[in-house]
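Here is one chain, start to finish.
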Amino acid sequence: MNVAAVRRWWQRPTAPLLLVAAVKFAIHLATNGVYGFQRDEMYYVISGQHPALGYVDYPPVTPMLAWLNTSIFGISPWTLRLFPALAGAVVVFLAGMCAREMGSGRGIAVLTSLVTLMSPLLLGANWLFQTVTFDQLTWLIAIYLLLRILRTGDARLFLVMGIDVGIGLETKLTILALCLGIVAAVLVSRDLRLPLRTRYPWIGMVIALALFAPNVAWQIANDFPSLTYIRNHSVDISNGGGMLTFIADFLLYIGPLILPLWIAGIIFLLRNRRFRPVGVLTVVTILLLLPEGKAYYPAPTIPLVLAGGCIAVGRIVSRTRRRQVTGLVVAGAFIQLAVLLPVILPVVPTSSLHTFNLDKLRQDFADTVGWPDLASQVAAVYNRLPVSQRATTSILASNYGEAGAVDIYGGSEHLPQAISPHLTFWYWKPANLDATTLVTVGFNPIDIAFFCGTVTRAGTVVMPDSVVNQEAATPILICTNLRESINAAWPSLRSFS
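Its structure:
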């Protein structure tokens, strides 16, 4: 490619936005291999090996992506995290495009993408393979399409939005709050109500529902396990601090030094008649999730509001004042990133997590440590059993993290696939499992005494580098002389929380 061609490409409105997105992608490529699998990542990998139309705590898109990724690249943390890194880069690009749809110039669009890139929310989430990142992407696509409809009046875009929302519903159910936010936006906007006279919004709605129908069918067939999970999860959220924790976390996800920009953005959106619908969308979405949600649920609206804030900065009349404020925004974002970086990205070696208390400050970091060690320690207990006894011995794990570790790392240790009553693992126990001995991890003796005649403590999980996480110091037990079979005990062990 010659210099003239590069110059022509750079003059395109999207070129600098693509460059910022590429920087975002490169940051994750450089850091995604520092830590091992996080517990959720192993769960998605194993879920992908059990294809289904639904799972207890999430719809099927993320497990499908995990299956696709591991089929292409094999099972490793760095390669698994390629998809969320790419999705996060697209979100950064779309943030700038949202600013463009609201009438910003090239510079303000770049500023929007830049502050979105440095958002604690996105950098902190997009390095992990979880539903969160893919959920963020579907939200941003829907928001971008809504802004485009506002600008162009092109009702056909509702068809694309229907596809996006349908995929979003099959990714994470929290997008339902965004759907209600979109309804509120349509109700307050004459420009968005006009397309309702056409067939396109209604066809889009049918497309979204049709894409969501397989998961609904799975829920009906399995007596709505996700509703049970949501009820249990709501109790956990309330016990974890409720609304006050939600607000504090949401402000942290925005970033303390960028908060004034977010405030300017929400004021700009609500005051501007043209963009008031997306301001209403943001407020409605946050309020819907505030009582019983987690702060990262509505956080995909943050790039939209930051775009509004950047446009407000761009409308400062005084050129000198505008440059000063822009400089303060960029400086604030960089300072904030520099201070929070050790808590946001995996840049501190795992050997130093406990030293700097990062295993307590960021649970996701702690949950990437020790899974091969756990599998090895369980294997040491299992392999000490007589060969004849091992033939009818199963590995019972108390949660999906432990079960995932055994399944992913236990093969080289000659371990059988784990069974666990936790969430969707509960469905994966082989029917009529013939087990006379259980090696358990994560259970206390009292948890299994109702069906174990004899319980012997055979070990304790030790995490490397003194990292404190949920598995540290949990017991490894041997259960024999079963009072009832594991098949009979299985319904009593089920845990959908």
